[in-house]
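Thread: Newbie trying to understand structure tokens

Hi all, I'm a second-year student working on a class project, and my supervisor (Dr. K.) asked me to get a predicted structure for one chain before our next meeting. I've only ever worked with sequences, so writing a 3D structure as a token string is new to me. If someone could post the tokens and maybe explain what I'm looking at, I'd be very grateful. Here's the chain:
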Amino acid sequence: MSKRTKRKGDLINAKARAWIRQCYKRGKVFWISYYASGNHICESSHSREKSDAKRFLQQRLGEVAGGRYVGPRADRITFDELAEDMLNDYRINNKKASRMHKERLGLLLVSSAGEKLNRITC
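---
Reply by user tm_fold:
Sure, no problem. This is what the structure looks like when written as tokens:
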């Protein structure tokens, strides 16, 4: 058996893997950096503790690996915003919203008003 020697490509791949996930400090707050669907994402951990940032990074990487990642913006979108966007889309594109659509949306708005989308379940 021969021992494998290190090649230049191995070093480049190691550097690329190191950049895939990272915690770094901007001001007093730690930020995380990772890749999702080929896009480089930088996101604040909202924490001054590196251990919290690392935990948040591991959570995001788990979401990416498990196919549950939807992006940092999705954590902030409310049901009200989504309903308003849907109604605007119907109005702008001259789509007919049936009475049934409006009634169901009204019921959902009552029960889910102000709720963040990632907190709503069936």
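A couple of things are worth pointing out once you decode it. The beta strands are 22-26, 29-36, 39-47. Helices lie at 8-20, 50-66, 79-92, 99-112. Feel free to ask follow-ups in this thread.
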